[in-house]
Every structure is written in C-alpha cells, then in structure tokens.
Amino acid sequence: MSKRTHRPATQLVHAGQIRSDFAENAEALFLTSGFVYDDAEQAEATFKGEIAHYQYSRFGNPTVSMLEGRLAAIEGAEACRATATGMAAVHAAMLSHLKTGDRVVASRALFGSCHWIVSTLLPRFGIETVFVDGGDLDAWRAALSRRTDLVLIETPSNPMLDIIDLRAVADLAHQAGAIAVVDNVFATPLLQRPIEFGADVVVYSATKHMDGQGRVLGGAVLGRKDWIDNTLQPFIRNTGPSISPFNAWIVLKGLETMALRVDHACRSAATIADHLAGKRHIARALYPFRADHPQSALARAQMLAGGTLVTFELEGGKDSAFRFMNALDLIVISNNLGDSKSMVTHPATTTHMRIGAEERARLGITDGTIRFSVGLEDVADLIDDLDNALAVLG
Ligand SMILES: *Cc1c(COP(=O)(O)O)cnc(C)c1O
Question: pTM (2 decimals)?
Fold first, then answer.
C-alpha cells in the first residue's frame, strides 16, 4: 500500500496493490468464487476470525480488496467496502445502520433511486423520513431539532448542481445523534472529500467517473473501520451486494487514469459553461464554479474544481429541448454520466420523470432543462456540436 504522504494522482496508480508470489506488475484479477484451506484447522480458525484468510468472494476477494484499499487511500477514509452498484452501496449503508422506529433526514435533490429508498422503501419498515431543501440551513436546523439516526445528502446534486454546506449539515446531524452519509458521485474524491468536513460515511457509484469509460457497474461505501467492520460488513456478507472481481478489476484500472480524466473534463465543463452562458436560447447555465451560480462561494470552499457536469435551461421548454438534443451529432443522448463520451439527458422526461411535475418544480427542473455530462473529446468539437444544435432553434 502506498504511503499517506503520496498525492491523490499517485495513490490512484499505486494504493491498495497486493502482489501475489508471482510478482506481477499490473494488479491481478482473482476470478474465483472460493478459496481453499491447508487443513481443517485453518478453515476453523478462519471462520472463528482468528486468522486472516479469504473464504468466499461474497465476503471478500483480493482484487476487490485492492479496489477497496485504493478507494480508502484516495478518500482519506479508514476503510471501504466495494459493492455491485452505486445503489447497492447506498442501500447497504442505510439498511445496515437503520432499524424500525429510526428517523432519517435527507436532502430533497437526490438521485432518483436514492429518493425512492428514502420516500418509499424505508417507511415500509417503520422508519420516519423527512426531506429538506438542501441549501436551506434553517430547514436543516428545524428538521434536525429532533433525535435522528441518519442524514443523507448529495452535493453537487443531480441535475441542478445545488451545493449543500457539508460542514454545517454534518455538525447538525451529529448534534441530533445521526451519522452523516454523503453521496459524493458528482464531485468524485478528487474534487471533494466529505470526511474532512465531518461526514461519517461516503458512498459512490463507481459506474460513473471511477470506471469512467461506460463499461461496468460498481459502488463503494467508505467510513470508519469500526463502522465498516461491525455495521456494514455483516450486512454485506449476509445479503450479498458484492461486486464481481472482474468489475472490481475494471474499476481499479479505471482509477489509474481518473485524475487525468476528471481534470480534463472539469476544464472542458468550465469552458462550455462560460460559452453557453451568454448564448441565444440559453435561459441559464449552471456550473458550480461560475460566479453566477447561487452557491459558488460554498462550492469553492468545499470543492477543488466545479465538476464534470453542466446543467442548462433552454428557452421554449420540451419542444426546444428535444429539437436541440436531436440535432446533436457528436454528443449522445444517454442517462449515464461521468463517461469519456459526452452525453446529454432531458431529466423531466427520463431520470426525473417519475417524481412528478410538482416535485420537479420544487427542484427547479423545467421542461427546458438539459444535463450535460462532459467527456474527454476535444472541447472545440463539443462546442461546435452544441452551437450547431442551438442554430436549429433559429
Ligand atoms: C448513478 C448514481 C447513483 C447510483 O449508482 P448505480 O451505479 O447506477 O447504481 C447514485 N447516486 C448518484 C448521485 C448517481 O449519479
């Protein structure tokens, strides 16, 4: 394992590596479901927890361990467990911690499936859930004036790139007796490290920037060793949201280039946001580091760059949005994000269709809103494509 003193880009290449006796340079792919024991005594000692020995890939696997070690290093977390998807990570983090009678407070602007867990799944088990507007600290204070067990936030949020004050909300969560869980997908650990602001648990979809090339699904939960070992691990071990070693290996190798990719995409996103901001047909362009973003000061205080997504609103609603999207040639229409290929999404008719018009209005999502995930193409080609598509609007 690389030393803590190494910088993030170095950790992404080296941290967590476990070399086998063959002394391979690249990380090995241990595509095995089970492991063998020298004798019955070793098996017994393993199951008693007296010795460290891999047992079964649902519980742990060397390739998965390498991914977990690398993610823990880059996050500055004590421990990590990788999962099959980002949603498996969010679900395991919440359900392993909660029980009937508990109370959860969450920011309203959550990824669709996270919203479903809080609004629909948890209440089925007798867990009280409350949503608040993430940017409204008075609303957080009011919601957290009662004993609470878990707080879930996402910042920047999907798709409106709202920023939540990590330090303030983590402090309020702790005063209410809750752990603070942060979905850090949009920022990545390179741009924002929630643990430094007091978060207890950080969750990721590794499907996004970590793989970064649109190949596999994956997720991760990071936090203190005691919580990961004693709260999360028994849940994962016995319910089975484990990541395939193959997918873990893809993500592990994806991480090696993540700093290069995220840095490039952030620069392009900032350039594109500035380009779009003044243009005809663009009602507004949102980007966390632009001075006209309502929370740009907060974004700059807790993030190192503005991220790889730009959200903008076209005048003329759905009709304009669809005509614009259909006129794009290079940029694809897809609901994924954090990919090497640039993609646009129309949240009102796809990712945020199910939450309904009223909730969309509350979140600021209009029929003209477009979410743009900026990829690794030459930024001049992306701007040409955007301009050509805007020209179709007249
Ligand atoms: C994609 C995403 C998830 C879910 O991850 P999957 O890997 O698709 O299960 C959760 N939160 C955010 C913010 C996401 O973008």
Answer: 0.96
